[in-house]
Amino acid sequence: KSANPQWREQFDFHYFSDRKDMLDIEVWRKDNKKHEELLGRCHVDITALPAKQTNCLELPLEKHPGSLLMLIAVAPCTGVSISDLCVCPLGDPNERQQISQRYCIKNSFRDMKDIGFLQVKVLKAVDLMAADFSGKSDPFCVLELGNDMLQTHTVYKNLNPEWNKVFTFPIKDIHDVLEVTVFDEDGDKPPDFLGKVAIPLLSV
């Protein structure tokens, strides 16, 4: 019931410099559980923003009245990576020893915010649902931990895709839940949901 809402929410997105990404933002109005209405959208060219500083942006909504006030910072992030199985961060014995030393009991209170990191190897999926008329799907996998999100590439026309990727996340809250979702890529349309699994970090 507000035309001037304040959310004060922070979201972390992993932006890799070899990509030319646009940040797409949409504002929606919800009347009830079933009815939603788009109030406007805007776009931010990430590559045009100065790095290592907080940018205060007032973004007008396209073809709709109103604007969004946002603080966007492009900063180097540590501990986040996507790699192939053969070069995964814990594959090197020396690096594994350094990690063990970094998180040993005597160093527990050196940096209270550095809880640890999670490494996930996404190997493959088996017997996925067919989402296309051809009896196949174009699956990709999305991993979410807190507000962090990374995803695999798409394997086209396949119900048993193999991704063989390694994802590394910094852990900010030991009570977080890793959510792994498989989608079917559908061109310009929103992807179709193929399945999901949730893994609490405390169960690992």
From TrEMBL:
InterPro entries referenced in this protein's UniProt entry, alphabetically: C2_dom, C2_domain_sf
Ranges of residues in domain C2: 1-59, 93-204
GO BP term, pick one: regulation of neurotransmitter secretion
Record's keyword annotation contains Transmembrane helix: yes
Compartmental location: Membrane
GO molecular function, one term: calcium ion binding
Keywords: Calcium, Membrane, Metal-binding, Repeat, Transmembrane, Transmembrane helix
Membrane topology summary: Multi-pass membrane protein
Gene Ontology CC annotations of this record: synaptic vesicle membrane
Top-level division of the source organism's lineage: Eukaryota
Family: Belongs to the MCTP family.
Name of this protein: MCTP2 protein
